[in-house]
Amino acid sequence: MSQNIHFGDYPFAIKEHLASWLHWDWRLPIFGQRVLSFASKFPPNLDPTRPLKIDRTNDHDRKYMFNEWIIPSGRPGSGPTAIWDKGVFRVLGEKSMIHQLAHGNLRIYVIGDRLKGNFSLKWIGPGEHNWLWIKEWDDYADSLLKFPNVLTQEKIMELERKNHTPKGSRSLNLFNKQKMFF
């Protein structure tokens, strides 16, 4: 499949977010200004043998899709958030994205800065929140490639300067507490 961007491609973003715990947020626009959202405790990968459990979360407003900032204390999800990957995706197959999601199996072709190739988003139940993000076998499959985190100490300090967040804020303290695990 060509890697050119064509009409019908949708933008996507995956953010690394250090709130009460380090996680990755998927943002896929499907409802006009609303963005379908998922979260995972582990970063995405290109390994077809390692499906990633992701949880459906509340839809978000599209205007926050590509923001890098520190969500202020007292607000839901407070802490730093930065773009881990961004690009476009195209729905694979004859059925629409909405139809595939409604039937629990969305297949997409991704052209991101980090992620590339065919992926599936599969509902595993019970309930509407339990899904798997699966890299399919293709030319981009790679079981050895590991991507570095983007929320480094330097990045958080940059976000603090950009957002005029006082030093020693909740976000910096969370990073120091959790960095021993990653």
Mean pLDDT: 84
Question: Which structural class do you get from the secondary structure elements?
Answer: mainly beta
Distance N to C terminus: 35 Å
The parts where pLDDT drops under 50 for at least 5 residues are: 1-7, 165-182
Order of helices and strands: EEEEEEHEEEHH
Query: Into how many domains do the coordinates divide?
Result: 1
What spatial order of strands do you see in the largest sheet?
Answer: 1-2-3-4-9-8-7-6
Shape label: globular
Give the percentage of residues in beta strands: 35-45%
Key terms:
globular; 182 residues; 3 helices
Layout of strands and helices, then pairs:
Layout: E1 10-18, E2 22-31, E3 34-40, E4 52-61, E5 69-71, E6 79-91, H1 97-102, E7 105-112, E8 116-123, E9 130-135, H2 153-163, H3 170-178
Antiparallel strand pairs: 1-2, 1-6, 2-3, 3-4, 4-9, 5-6, 6-7, 7-8, 8-9
Description of the molecule:
This protein is mostly beta strands. The chain has one domain (10-140). It has three helices and nine strands; from the N terminus they run E-E-E-E-E-E-H-E-E-E-H-H. It has helices spanning 97-102, 153-163, 170-178, and strands at 10-18, 22-31, 34-40, 52-61, 69-71, 79-91, 105-112, 116-123, 130-135. Strands 1-2-3-4-9-8-7-6 form an eight-stranded antiparallel β-barrel. The longest helix has 11 residues, at 153-163.
